[in-house]
Amino acid sequence: NQKKLNNLDAKEKQLESFTIDHTGKRMTTNQGLRVSNDDDSLRAGRRGPTIMEDFHFREKMTHFDHERIPERVVHARGSGAHGYFQVYEPMHELTEAGFLQDPSKKTPVFVRFSTVLGSKGSPDTARDVRGFATKFYTEEGIFDLVGNNIPIFFIQDAMKFPDVIHAGKPEPNREIPQAATAHDTFWDFVVNNTETAHMVLWVLSDRGIPRSFRMMEGFGVHTFRFVNKQGKARFVKFHWKPILGVHSLVWEEAQQLAGKDPDYHRRDLWNAIDAEHFPEYELGVQILEEEDEFAFDFDILDPTKFWPEEDIPVRKIGKLTLDRNVDNFFAETEQVAFHVANVVPGIDFTNDPLLQGRLFSYLDTQLIRLGGPNFHEIPINRSVSAVVNNQRDGYHRMTINRGVTSYSVNSLQNNDPKPSSEKEGGYVHYAEKVDGRKIRERSPSFNDHYSQATFFWNSMSEVEKQHIINAFHFEVGNVENKQIRQRVVEVFNNVDSELATLIAAGIGVDPPMAPGGTGVKASSPAVSQMTTKKSPK
Ligand code: HEM
């Protein structure tokens, strides 16, 4: 066993130290007392009442009664796996992040894939966005890349997140329907918040029903920053590109699977890893120089926009391999806690107003979901680098901190933890210059809700277009309120008038009133060939 331990990477070793092998062991209570009978409660006489004294019964039942924790408020349905990441070449020109320097080094990772709106027991193949969250256990601390399988998002400002989720979850009175996008509240939100139009098209495309987690792209969505050792920063977008390519189900398959095998994606992931067909994804980055921040006719801080890959190519910089299934779903997949704010030196944020709100939300929700401030001590969430600070106590504290002081600076104890300078690996935020009036107002540079939606629509093949129309017919066709159905047609008329006319034909409403199609028409057939760069002045 010692030999096996030596061969495990740092995270596996750490997890191994928390696992228990029950084989051949005698049963005990939680206090370590050997149990003589686990089948019968303690009774006053063979046919008499159970008595209070039965500590074994009470402990067993109480633990069972408390087995569940709240499901995630979004992304409740998920599946996880362990693996490792290796960079292809040193990235020091772009970022000082330690795990992106040495091609021979394997950084342990844990990935959780998810749907967004369904509850924990909902079917895998529902039409929805998919989460693709990766935890890198680096030597400099944890880096979480909490992404989705679609490169953009529904909304521009975190303030709207509770609204878009309330609109997409089952209706509050009757808790139906479960189908994420097939009901009045979702489409009511869409027609009243047209910034959603671009994302809605992606979700109604084949991207909304992936064939397998192994055949799905991932995107960090927001614009982040890479910062190198010299302090030079550049904008970066993160991508995951599956080695198996991107493949989708067709809607009829997705519907049948939801009934016949609601665990379809979970089973596929598990079986592939079990059979050693390890899922692989390349990490890609799009890099933009700071001086090009305003070179495009969209705002790079607007999360409803992607960066056209023709203008800013995706550079593949490393590979993720998922090679190990979990030992225990609850301990690992359910208790894992990702947070966009978990970064390492060399990776920083931007002022994307959706990202800024996420930086608050994840820790906040995990404080209640995982029962207090010590969930970083749960084995799956533990950093492999040492955690040293003056934070103390709280529910479920595992660490036993020694010594008389828990404050800094102190003169009583000479081993109190000291901060590190930037040179010594201390995280220093990028010193972006910020200057402005305190206002509650959307930037006018976020006003264009349709141009990229039109590009996306025009990049689809005829078959892909037909799938989108069919999806509109199914999803919007289920909307009971005719006015909302009509307004869907008017909103998507801004994307493309033919699209709007085709939608109208299948949902019992009139074709669009005006000619429409105010979105810019793209001549090129593929998203990757789209150009929206401003022409040089
Ligand atoms: C999960 C909030 C936007 C990807 C969650 C959770 C919350 C949340 C509260 C549950 C976390 C937990 O219980 O551990 C928000 C807010 C957003 C936002 C407030 C916008 C303001 C996004 C975006 C993406 C994303 C744009 C993709 C880039 C994910 C993923 C998970 C998640 C993948 C599941 C993580 C897991 O598997 O545990 N989000 N989210 N979210 N979010 Fe977001």
UniProtKB/TrEMBL annotation:
Heme binds at residues 72, 112, 161, 358, 362, 369. There is a cross-link at residues 339-362 (3'-histidyl-3-tyrosine (His-Tyr)). Keywords: Heme, Hydrogen peroxide, Iron, Metal-binding, Oxidoreductase, Peroxidase. The active site is at 75, 148. Decomposes hydrogen peroxide into water and oxygen; serves to protect cells from the toxic effects of hydrogen peroxide. Its EC number is 1.11.1.6. It is an enzyme of class 1 (oxidoreductase). Belongs to the catalase family. HPII subfamily. Its cofactor is heme. It catalyses: 2 H2O2 = O2 + 2 H2O. Residues 28-416 form the Catalase core domain. GO terms for molecular function: catalase activity; heme binding; metal ion binding. GO terms for biological process: hydrogen peroxide catabolic process; response to oxidative stress. The lineage of its organism: Bacteria, Bacillati, Bacillota, Bacilli, Bacillales. This is Catalase. GO terms for cellular component: cytosol. Residues 1-47 are annotated as: Disordered. The keyword Oxidoreductase applies.
